[in-house]
């Protein structure tokens, strides 16, 4: 026991003890710096809340200038955008497809290229005669919630198309269509 006590008091032991403390402090600092680096490099992604009156869906792909595919209620679902009509680009009859339709589809594809989640807002009628879900589709661009239907119309890739009974934004779409016509 005496030797052990004497050993702890030796200069060599004190030097080893100091090196041990330095190692512990260095290791702790290294771990803390690593945690901070990871937190900065990979910030927690804040998922926006689902806006009131809308439902969340996973965006899958663009079909054409006024139709997209989403995962809704665990099923791949075709969504027809309410209130707009883009020129044809994927019609089975190739004579009905137009260069303007291709441009509209390309525009929507570019617009949605980084989008993973969309939000659907419904109107009076949920499905059209082709069994497509009818919706106003929203997506986030930076921190802004944008209505896809309105954006396509505003950019001139579609015209307003009002189909009863879905009239929630009908007047806005008609007014925007008039503005586009005046600008041309």
Sum this structure up briefly:
The protein is an alpha+beta fold.
How would you describe this structure in keywords?
184 residues; alpha+beta; OB fold (Dihydrolipoamide Acetyltransferase, E2P); 2 domains; 5-stranded mixed barrel; two-stranded antiparallel sheet; 24% strand; disordered N terminus
Strand and helix map with partners:
Elements: H1 2-8, H2 11-41, E1 55-64, E2 67-72, E3 75-81, E4 84-85, H3 99-111, E5 117-121, E6 133-141, E7 144-147, H4 148-154, E8 159-160, H5 170-183
Parallel strand pairs: 3-6
Antiparallel strand pairs: 1-2, 1-5, 2-3, 4-8, 5-6, 6-7
Give a verbal description of the structure.
By secondary structure, the protein is of the alpha+beta class. It has helices at 2-8, 11-41, 99-111, 148-154, 170-183, and strands spanning 55-64, 67-72, 75-81, 84-85, 117-121, 133-141, 144-147, 159-160. The protein folds into 2 domains: 2-41; 55-183, OB fold (Dihydrolipoamide Acetyltransferase, E2P), CATH 2.40.50.90. A 5-stranded mixed barrel has the order 1-2-3-6-5. Strands 4-8 form a two-stranded antiparallel ribbon. A hairpin with a 2-residue loop joins β2 and β3.
